[in-house]
Design brief:
Layout lengths: L15 H8 L6 E4 L9 H15 L4 E7 L13 E7 L1 E2 L1 H4 L4 E2 L2 H13 L3 E5 L4 H9 L6 E6 L9 H21 L2 E4 L5 H6 L5 E3 L18 E5 L8 H14 L4 E5 L5 H10 L6 E4 L6 H6 L2 E4 L8 H8 L4 E4 L4 H4 L7 E3 L4 H13 L1 H18 L2 H16 L3
Parallel strand pairs: 1-6, 2-3, 6-7, 7-8, 8-9, 10-11, 10-13, 11-12, 13-14, 14-15
Antiparallel strand pairs: 4-5
Helix pairs in contact: 1-15, 4-5, 5-6, 8-13, 11-14
């Protein structure tokens, strides 16, 4: 688990009215929380890290409190403009099959951070994260407003014991987190009714964004399929594995790149080996510069069962890589079938295979989708646009009695 703490001092707004509202208070301090931070490869942690860096660029003072299982060196730890704090934690992801951390020491450390920084707003990320629960619990006694971002949409497609646990958690603990929040930010319109059903007082849709300078198109002439994400059932990696033999039967010259790790990691490797696909498939546990992977790809596949608005899909679109994705949560709000990507129903490996084969067969279609996808991102989902929207929400929260 990871907790993100952001302290906001000073004010930068493009709207004079909002600036005046914020200036009515002597100081505004915002603590962001999230259970994971890069180099962990999930989308939420990437979004939180980008938000922190963009808030710094806008003149805010930023601090980060995160949970540390001792397995990684955090990318933001040495950033001079960010104050960085950790608490030791136990990662339970491999045990329960869903991304999860637990920390006893975080109870004390989070309290210490609250005492030191005295935030006006605590901004929690993900209704299932441990640090979001901490933020909600401490909001009962502490003097701050709680903002929570809903990164995940409907979890109804998550099966097995993990699905049962997630649904039980959502109807109890997550409901408490959301009902304690003064404002809930939803990464898609599809997530907004979920927030409202869990007791959200106020909601706003602020979609995820992409750094369009970091992720930009490059010329890829070959047939190269890319998957980026944790190796968990929720992300549909098992369906892609089932589809790979069909894809490679049709296009034996294709290259497959799988970037990720997780509880299904051993199963992924064994499946590739037993299917005789080792010469065509390369697995990367971690990549220092993920933008380089999009430079290799001509198609991205993300056949998820549950999402909010997948960051990898947006990065691929910004990079001019057509996405083959399941039509869940906020995905259809961004991807128009056969215009900016290809939409699938979840849980259908044959559809996955046929969509990828179609794109490998039709270079003209790939080129058209590539251009349309890039244009959509640059016009609608830049980080500058997203940061402005988040800042506006902060200003409204601190001026609301």
């Amino acid at each position: 688990m990871c907790s993100f703490s952001i302290l906001l001092k000073g004010y930068y707004f493009r709207d004079d009215h909002l600036l005046d509202c914020m200036n009515k208070r002597e100081e505004n301090r915002i603590l962001l929380t999230s259970d994971y931070l890069p180099p962990s490869d999930g989308g939420v942690e990437q979004v939180v890290q980008k938000l922190a860096l963009h808030l710094v660029d806008e003149g805010f003072t930023v601090g980060i409190f995160t949970l540390d299982d001792g397995s990684r060196d955090f990318e933001l730890e040495d950033v001079p403009d960010i104050s960085f704090y950790t608490a030791s934690a136990l990662d339970l992801t491999d045990t329960i099959g869903l991304q999860s951390m637990f920390s006893v020491s975080a109870l004390r450390e989070f309290r210490n951070v609250l005492r030191e920084f005295q935030p006006d707003i605590v901004h929690a990320h993900n209704r299932f994260f441990y640090t979001s629960v901490l933020a909600a619990l401490y909001s009962i006694r502490a003097d701050y407003k709680l903002v929570t971002t809903l990164h995940l949409g409907d979890i109804g497609m998550i099966s097995g014991l993990g699905g049962v646990a997630a649904k039980t958690f959502e109807q109890t603990v997550s409901q408490f987190v959301i009902s304690r929040s003064e404002q809930v930010i939803c990464v898609s319109a599809a997530a907004e009714p979920i927030a409202q059903s869990l007791g959200a007082k106020r909601t706003a849709v602020v979609r995820n964004a992409v750094d369009i300078n970091e992720f930009s198109p490059s010329q890829t002439n070959g047939k190269s399929l890319l998957y980026i994400g944790r190796f968990v059932h929720n992300n549909g990696i098992q369906d892609l594995l089932t589809a790979l033999p069909l894809i490679l039967d049709s296009h034996p010259d294709a290259e497959i790149h799988l970037v990720g790790s997780g509880p299904l990691g051993d199963k992924v490797r064994k499946s590739i080996q037993s299917s005789g696909l080792s010469e065509s498939v390369t697995i990367y546990d971690y990549v220092d510069d993920i933008s380089e992977m999009y430079d290799l790809a001509s198609v991205l596949c993300r056949p998820s069962y549950s999402e909010g608005l997948p960051l990898t899909m947006l990065e691929a679109m910004a990079s001019g890589v057509p996405p083959v994705v399941t039509a869940i949560a906020g995905v259809p709000e961004v991807v128009t079938d056969h215009e900016t990507g290809i939409l699938l129903e979840p849980g259908n490996p044959d559809e996955v295979a046929q969509a990828i084969i179609e794109l490998f067969d039709d270079a003209e279609l790939r080129t058209r989708l590539s251009k349309n996808a890039r244009d959509y991102i640059t016009e609608n989902l830049t980080w500058e646009q997203r940061t402005d929207k988040v800042i506006r929400i902060y200003s409204q929260v601190v001026t609301t009695d």
